[in-house]
Amino acid sequence: MSPVELDRRLRELQTDVLLMGSMVEKAIERSVDALKRRDLETSRQIIEQDTQIDHKRFEIEEKCIEVIATQEPVARDLRQIVAVLNIIVDLERMADHAEGIAKITLLLGDHPPLKPLIDIPRMADLACDMLRRSLDALVTLDQEAARRICADDDEVDALYDQVYRELLTFMITDPKTIDRATYLLWTAHNLERIADRSTNIAERVIFLVTGKMENTNVSRY
Amino acid sequence: MSNNNNDGASAVTSAGTVHSEAGHGSLVVEDLQAWYGRFRAVANLSLTITPRAVTAIIGPSGCGKSTFLRCINRMHEVARGARAAGKVLLDGDDVYAPDADPVQVRRHIGMVFQKPNPFPMMSVYDNVVAGLKLAGVKNRAMLDEVAERSLRRAALWDEVNDKLNNSGAALSGGQQQRLCIARALAMEPQVLLMDEPCSALDPVATSKIEDLIRELRQNYTIVIVTHNMQQAARVSDHTAFLLLDEDRAGRLVEYGPTSQLFTNPQDRRTEDYITGRFG
């Protein structure tokens, strides 16, 4: 085990995770933006580009395995690699949620909008912010920042509640809206899951710093 | 000397016998200090070693690991100018009590060294029973039985049962080390001390010794000094980390379950050492 080589590889892994994180964040933002604008072309691109994110995940996973096999990391070094292995799964699933939103946009096609989208973009902003901050906490090893992210999930849950009630009202009032309302509900659910997965990343940061597994966020969904 | 576990003779006095019904091999080290002349090599070390488990002692070169190990069975004092103070309780009996017999202590607390050291002029068989013969055992049937049992316990029987009369020195390095383990086991010790037992062996032989250590822990208390951190992580249940203090004496920094020490050490110095960032 060479600490110099191990440090170099750990830094490389961190850079890779940040790169993957920015790819995922971009996919989420673009998917919601495309939904707002009913941009089918961008939605198709997001679906296509999801494979790049999948590949990135496998590439990082392979690097982790190689570091474990060749550098024999222990203690915090080992926890960092375990954290990365978990985080990339969450990131990859977040990208799948973004892909799901893009598919919903294709399903909506040129159906007339049910309502102006306000809360859903707001949920996307919050979820992306949580994602960004969770990766910042990973870099700065700031467990307090990580705990705040977990607390912020309540806000996303509250917005999801609101969207759910509103869409339910549409469906009850006019059954012809059921399809479109259901698609939007799926969208909101995807965003709610993205926020949950950001808290998973934050929990991994806490584990990395303290060595203890904590379930800090008990999402209502 | 008090005797907490035996109704009869103490485990370590000269009155005791090699096969006395001693306890389970519990070791309690209290405030142990060791010197070479005026130089103090180990300072105020206290440790309770779990019986029938493997305890690894790790730390940088010169931190007193081997000295500590040699203090446990009173091998330290054999070196010129070397002395020790404090208590080492084997099943409640202090091996440093005034009436404790170092020879008996070493029968109950066997030792395996870094370099395999079979008696070169002796056969495999004689190597194993040398201690018993020295203790006056002449009964051939008993010697045969002990030789086979010890070689089996050392996972060597299948490889040497057809060459028991060959020289022990003719065996491979890994086999020689297992022969030394068999020789130690022949004395029916409660505790087995191992001072870097694999450092002179190749990975295959090392792996066999590690398998053996895991097997032996069911019946013996094992304390192993190793420079190989992964080996400590692989074979031990508990790990103690020693480090030189400002007076260059070895001190205990952290002691705990191996699984915790290698995933989430509590002391920064342990973390730095096991991750290779100093030492």
Describe it.
The complex is a heterodimer of chains A (221) and B (279). Chain A has 221 residues and is mainly alpha-helical. Chain A has one domain (3-210): Up-down Bundle (Methane Monooxygenase Hydroxylase, Chain G, domain 1), CATH 1.20.58. Chain A is built from six helices and no strands. Chain A has helices at 3-37, 40-71, 75-108, 119-140, 143-173, 178-210. Chain A is elongated. Chain B is α/β, with parallel strands linked by helices. Chain B has a domain at 27-118 and 189-274: P-loop containing nucleotide triphosphate hydrolases (Rossmann fold, 3-Layer(aba) Sandwich), CATH 3.40.50.300. Chain B starts with 26 loop residues before the first strand and ends in a 5-residue tail after the last helix. The A-B interface holds A 1-3, 6, 72-79, 211-212 and B 229-230, 233, 262-265, 270-271, 274-277.
- How many helices of chain B? The count is 10
Helix content of chain B: 25-40%
Individual helix count of chain A: 6
Low-confidence stretches of chain A: none
Helix and strand succession of chain B? EEEHEEHEHHHHEHEHEEHH
CATH H-level superfamily title of chain A: Phosphate transport system protein phou homolog 2, domain 2
What kind of assembly state do the chains in view correspond to?
heterodimer
Largest interface (CB within 8 Å) is between:
A-B, 14 and 13 residues
Major sheet of chain A, described briefly?
Answer: none
CATH superfamily membership of the domain at 27-118 and 189-274 in chain B: P-loop containing nucleotide triphosphate hydrolases
CATH class category name of the domain at 27-118 and 189-274 in chain B = Alpha Beta
Q: How many β strands of chain B by DSSP?
A: 10
Strand content of chain A: under 5%
Helices and strands of chain A: which structural class? mainly alpha
Helix-strand blueprint:
The complex is a heterodimer of chains A (221) and B (279).
Chain A: H1 3-37, H2 40-71, H3 75-108, H4 119-140, H5 143-173, H6 178-210
Helix pairs in contact in A: 1-2, 1-3, 1-4, 2-3, 3-6, 4-5, 4-6, 5-6
Chain B: E1 27-36, E2 39-49, E3 54-58, H1 65-72, E4 82-90, E5 93-94, H2 102-108, E6 109-112, H3 124-134, H4 140-153, H5 157-160, H6 173-185, E7 191-195, H7 203-216, E8 221-225, H8 229-235, E9 238-244, E10 250-257, H9 258-263, H10 268-274
Parallel strand pairs in B: 3-8, 3-9, 6-7, 7-8
Antiparallel strand pairs in B: 1-2, 1-4, 4-5, 9-10
